[in-house]
Design brief:
The protein has about 240 residues and is mainly α. It has two domains: about 90 residues, Endonuclease Iii, domain 2, CATH 1.10.1670.40; about 100 residues, Endonuclease III, domain 1 (Orthogonal Bundle). Helix content is about 60%, strand content about 0%. Helix 2 packs across helix 3, helix 9 crosses helix 10 and helix 11 crosses helix 13. It is elongated, with a radius of gyration of 19 Å.
C-alpha cells in the first residue's frame, strides 16, 4: 500500500479507467476559434491547458446523473452518485423501478428528487417518454421535450446536451459556476443577463468548450484559493 492508500493494482486500475473513459471531444479547431475571439479566454486556455471531462453516452444514465447533481456541489453529487450505483448496480429504468423510493432517497437526495427519478424511469420504461428521440432534435427541441417531465429544468437539459449528447454550443445561464467563471475571467463583481448573452454569442458555435474553461475558472475565487466545492457543474465519476 502506498502512502496515499492505493496499492499498485489500484493505481493500474485507475489509470486504465482514465485511459479508456469517454471524454467530451474537441480539438485545435475549437480552441483556436475561441482564442481568436476572446483575448482573456485565450490567456486562460493557455494557462489551464487541455481539459478532459468525462461524458456518459447512455442518455438515461446521464439524465439520472444530471438530476442527482441539481443544486448541489460536484463533491456532494459524486458521493450521492456512487451510493446510487452501489445500491442499484446499474443505472437503468428497470433497476430504479424495482428499488424502494426510500432506499433511493437514503443515498443522499431529497425525497422529491428521488420521486422524480422514479417517475422518469417509469415513463422511459413504458415508452411514454421516448428518450432516444432527443438525438433527432435541435437544442431548443431537446430542452422543450425534457422540461415537459417533472423534475427536469433547463439546466438539467443543458447538462445532458453537453455531457451525454456532445452538443457543441451550450453555455448555461442557470449554472452558477459558469457565471462565476465569467466574473473571474473578466474581473466582474456580478454579471447581467445582457452581458452573459454577449459573451455566449462570442463563444458560439463552440460554447460548450468555453463552458469547460469557465467551470475551471469558477474554482478560482480570486484570492488564489481553489474552491472546487462551490462548483455546481455535474460530477461524473
Amino acid at each position: 500500500m502506498s502512502c496515499f492508500g492505493q496499492g499498485v493494482d489500484d493505481v493500474e486500475k485507475e489509470s486504465k479507467e482514465i485511459k479508456f473513459m469517454e471524454i467530451f471531444k474537441y480539438g485545435e479547431k475549437e480552441i483556436n476559434y475561441l482564442k481568436r475571439k476572446d483575448k482573456k479566454l485565450s490567456e486562460a486556455i493557455d494557462r489551464i491547458g487541455k481539459i478532459e471531462r468525462r461524458v456518459i453516452p447512455d442518455l438515461f444514465e446521464a439524465l439520472i446523473n444530471s438530476i442527482v447533481s441539481q443544486q448541489i456541489s460536484s463533491k456532494a453529487a459524486d458521493t450521492v452518485w456512487k451510493r446510487l450505483i452501489n445500491l442499484l448496480g446499474e443505472i437503468k429504468p428497470e433497476t430504479i423501478m424495482d428499488e424502494d423510493i426510500n432506499s433511493i432517497q437514503k443515498c443522499g437526495m431529497t425525497f422529491r428528487k428521488a420521486s422524480y427519478i422514479k417517475v422518469i424511469s417509469e415513463n422511459v420504461y413504458s415508452g411514454t417518454f421516448n428518450i432516444n428521440e432527443l438525438n433527432d432534435l435541435p437544442d431548443e427541441g431537446v430542452i422543450k421535450m425534457l422540461t415537459s417531465q417533472n423534475g427536469i429544468g433547463v439546466w438539467t437539459a443543458e447538462m445532458l446536451m453537453i455531457f451525454s449528447m456532445g452538443r457543441p454550443d451550450i453555455v448555461s445561464w442557470g449554472d452558477l459556476a459558469i457565471r462565476r467563471g465569467m466574473c473571474n475571467l473578466y474581473n466582474l463583481k456580478d454579471i447581467s443577463k445582457v452581458q452573459f448573452e454577449r459573451y455566449k454569442k462570442r463563444y458560439s458555435p463552440y460554447g460548450s468548450v468555453a463552458s469547460l474553461y469557465l467551470w475551471a475558472l469558477s474554482a478560482n475565487s480570486g484570492d488564489g484559493i481553489l474552491r472546487t466545492d462551490l462548483k455546481m457543474s455535474p460530477s461524473f465519476p
